[in-house]
Design brief:
alpha/beta; 12 helices; five-stranded mixed sheet; 11 strands
């Protein structure tokens, strides 16, 4: 073989390798979910990834990057290359509450991310246990007033919707309440059943199994209308509290991503959520499939931000960072 041709071929190998790597990256997208595996949001990611992959003609891998109440995963996507290789799926509250409560916000949702689609909604529940002698919300309020030393309630974490729901309840009822932060819903429900705390605010999906087993009692839900998962339970608004506080999962790309890819990604997600088998699996775990375009997600985020900002500000709660 001619020596010059051989050397030219060797020099071209790194370029071929780089091209192959770039092609491989283009065919792979990581869906970053910033919370633990096994929960409802994680299941949502895995279900739609399976349906979206053939439509997008790329491999979709769900990666759990936990920590910092969602910040670790959010920051990972914020700093990612805007080439479609990283997609963020997280709860709406992480995207509008975290910038409100951090002393120095780690991200600006509008500046750092490109909206793709609203995915699914979920609801919160006000849950009491055996220690509270109350059949409904009105009786529960009377019980709290009669037992001022037993007003401790659990929330899945500080800085969350349940946290600020508790603050709104405290203000509206005029009853001092003691918030106890936990790591997730399971320990809250265990302590409610054990009588260690009087009540809790958790996701409806997490509370339903114990509610149906009579271990706890859901006395109100946070949605605008009665939940299809618990149609016998009144809403907070029906109970006299002017508060609607459902939550949702959304999908974002890093800012600067190609709009065509964002549009294609959103359409694939919405199509996946419209499949009867996917709907059935999501409703079985307490999620209400939605699907939208980028504008739908932007509008939802703006409405939630406007609603919660004065409530959060009134509490004075901040995360030092």
């Amino acid at each position: 073989m001619d020596r010059r041709k051989f050397m030219a071929g060797c020099l071209g190998l790194p370029l071929l390798a780089e091209a192959s790597e770039a092609q491989a990256q283009a065919a792979l997208s990581k869906i970053i979910f910033p919370f633990a595996a096994g929960a409802g949001g994680d299941t949502l990611c895995r279900l739609i990834a399976q349906e979206m992959a053939p439509v997008l003609q790329r491999t979709l891998v769900v990666e759990n990057r936990t920590g910092g109440d969602g910040l670790i995963g959010i920051k990972a996507v914020k700093g990612a290359s805007p080439d479609g290789s990283m997609v963020l799926v997280t709860t709406g509250p992480t995207m509008y509450l975290l910038p409100m409560v951090e002393t120095t916000p780690s991200f600006d949702t509008a500046r750092d991310f490109m909206p793709v689609s609203l995915l699914a909604r979920f609801e919160f529940a006000l849950v009491i246990g055996p220690v509270v002698d109350a059949a409904d919300f009105k009786a529960f309020v009377a019980w709290l007033k009669a037992h001022p030393d037993k007003t401790s309630f659990g929330v899945p974490s500080n800085g969350t919707i349940p946290h600020f729901m508790g603050s709104k309840l405290e203000k509206d009822l005029g009853i001092p309440l003691t918030r106890v932060p936990y790591r997730g819903s399971a320990p809250i429900l265990n302590d409610i059943i054990g009588g260690h705390i009087s009540f809790g605010i958790t996701t409806l999906a997490d509370a339903l199994p114990q509610h149906r087993a009579k271990g706890v009692k859901i006395i109100a839900v946070s949605s605008a209308e009665r939940s299809p998962f618990a149609p016998d339970v009144p809403t907070l608004k029906e109970s006299g509290i002017d508060l609607v506080a459902d939550a949702w999962y959304g999908m974002w790309l890093p800012s600067g991503s190609p709009p065509e890819f964002a549009s294609k990604l959103g359409a694939a997600a919405s199509a996946a959520l419209a499949r009867p088998d996917v709907k059935e699996k999501l409703t079985a775990i307490g999620l209400i499939p939605v699907g939208s375009d980028a504008k739908g997600l932007t509008n939802e985020l703006a409405a939630n931000t406007a609603f919660w900002r004065p409530i959060v500000k009134a509490t004075g709660y901040k995360i030092e960072n």
